[in-house]
Amino acid sequence: MKCGLLGAKLSHSYSPQIHGLLADYEYKLYEVEPENLETFVKTADFDGLNVTIPYKKAVMPFCDVLDPIAETIGSVNTLVRLGDGRLLGANTDGWGFDRMLGRTGVSVKGKKVLVLGSGGASATVQCILKLAEAEVVVISRKGENNYGNLHLHRDAAVIVNTTPAGMYPDTQFSPVNLDGFPHLQAVLDLIYNPSRTRLCMDAEARGIAYESGLYMLVAQAALACRLWTGKEVSDEKIRQIWEKLRSDMENIVLIGMAGCGKSTIGKALAKSLGRQFVDTDAVLTERIGSIPAFFEKFGEEAFRKEETKVLEEFGKLSGLVISTGGGVVTREENYPLLHQNGRMIWVKRDVEMLSVKGRPLSQKEGAAALYEKRIPMYTRFADTVVDNEGRIEDVVEKILNILR
User: Fold this and answer.
1) Maximum distance among all alpha carbons in the chain?
2) What whole-number distance in Å separates Cα of residue 377 and Cα of residue 371?
3) What are the DSSP calls for 266-317, one per residue?
4) Do 135 and 110 form a contact (C-beta atoms < 8 A)?
5) Alpha-carbon distance values, 228 to 50, 92, 340 (Å)
6) DSSP 52-115
7) Cβ–Cβ contacts within 10 Å for residue 361, how many?
8) Of 166, 316, 350, 396, which sits with the fewest C-beta atoms within 10 Å of its C-beta?
9) 63 φ, ψ (degrees, to nearest 5)
10) Which of 90, 78, 87 shows the shortest CA–CA distance to 45?
11) 48-51 vs 78-81, strand pairing mode
């Protein structure tokens, strides 16, 4: 079978990876200029195509038949070459969103759901929510219901973001403040890069169920696969692909006291996984010079600001192994920068084994006193803890086992 993705700019698409895990058909990227779209759809040799921005509406006139969801929404994201040569226009995004919604465990029947945005993705979400008998309110910039009168909807039970607000690279922006919604039960964000948007992290901090767009991306691809091949894709298969993608995208962030071995462990771990390694202290040294000298001249607060800038730069990237400075946990604003795309591993080492050479704070306050003060901070940041009391190879193997 010959399948692929049709769009304008496709260099950062995850679709080839997803479909490669779903089945063994050929899957190519087709970047087509608008003036060539009709010719391509009518003459290209393909059995099935996914369709992305900006052609989800533009391909509709070239379809011989539309499935009910595509017709209702007015958007096609999957083309299927039927046995008689006709072209079916389908929409698998709706099914993908339905599966994403189901993962929250929250029923929307009879509940108010705010849909942020009024574009094509919003139309898909609205369709599925209405089929689920939700009370749908669309929030747009200039509509009757807008970001200036959100107080009218404090009773909302679910919020769905269909806008690009919070998407890479502007990852620290959230479209709404969740403090205004005391009855909120779930937050869904169609964005999948970063893995956890600021909106999702705000929900997480409040104990509210949330889901990012990666599961929807995999689920909609699975339905497209079924339409092309006629073979079912199990929920377990979808979950496995989702978990692999999430793991591949996730940064591995090492935190812990200065001198605990983060840099050495990080380099070995990155080599084992075939990932890029980033040592934030090394980056800082390149940019501000000697860290002890900077401390001496400008003080800790100035240093922490420079450190946060580096974390903001690398924390939004994906698939890295990042070794951080011992004091990153002292600033709460660093947590979302590292958590958005990262799994934080606290490397613990007996305080008597910590090197204090070139460590201004360890020398000034004493490693033991500094460690005691920071224990609650490391606990707050860490997803996992590993001990480094022996060989580096053993620590790396512990981390690899955790990741598996």
Assistant:
1) 79
2) 10
3) HHHHHHHHT-EEEEHHHHHHHHHS-HHHHHHHH-HHHHHHHHHHHHHHHHTS
4) yes
5) 10, 12, 35
6) -TT-TTTTGGG-SEE-HHHHHHT---EEEE-TTS-EEEE--HHHHHHHHHHHHT---TTSEEEE
7) 21
8) 350
9) -90, 140
10) 87
11) antiparallel
pLDDT band at 365 (very low <50, low <70, confident <90, very high): low
Per-residue exposure over 253-280, b if at least 16 CB sit within 10 Å of its own CB, e if not: bbbbbbbbbbbebbbbbbeebebebbbb
Residue 404 confidence class, pLDDT cut points 50, 70, 90? confident
CB atoms within 10 A of CB 404: 6
- The reply to whether 267 belongs to the active site is no
> Residue 37 corresponds to which tokens in the numbers above?
């779209």
Query: Residue range 127-138: average pLDDT?
Result: 97
Residues 47-63: what's their mean pLDDT? 95
Q: d(Cα 195, Cα 89) in Å, to the nearest integer?
A: 30
Q: Give me the residues paired with residue 183 across strands.
A: none
Can you list the alpha helix ranges (DSSP code H) found in 132-279?
Answer: 198-205, 214-229, 235-249, 262-273
Whole-structure pTM value: 0.92
pLDDT in tens, 230-253: 999 999 999 999 999 999 999 999
Do the bridges between strand 78-81 and strand 342-348 make them parallel or antiparallel, or are there none, so unpaired? unpaired
Token output for 167: 């998407």
3-state helix, strand, coil in the chain (%, to 5): 45, 20, 35
DSSP structural state of residue 8:
S
Which tens digit of pLDDT belongs to each residue from 87-109?
999 999 999 999 999 999 999 99
- Look at residue 104 in the predicted model and tell me its pLDDT: 96
- Please answer whether residues 219 and 309 qualify as being in contact, where contact means their C-beta atoms are separated by less than 8 angstroms: no
User: Distance (Å, rounded) from C-alpha 305 to C-alpha 331?
Assistant: 9
Closest CA to 319 of 282, 269, 380: 269
For 362, phi then psi, to 5°, come to -65, -35
Mean pLDDT of the residues in the chain? 94
- Is it the case that residue 354 has pLDDT exceeding 90? no
Give the pLDDT confidence score for residue 290 in this predicted structure.
Answer: 94
Which residue in the list 2, 28, 56, 109 is annotated as catalytic?
Answer: 56
Q: Is the predicted pLDDT of residue 360 greater than 70, yes or no?
A: no
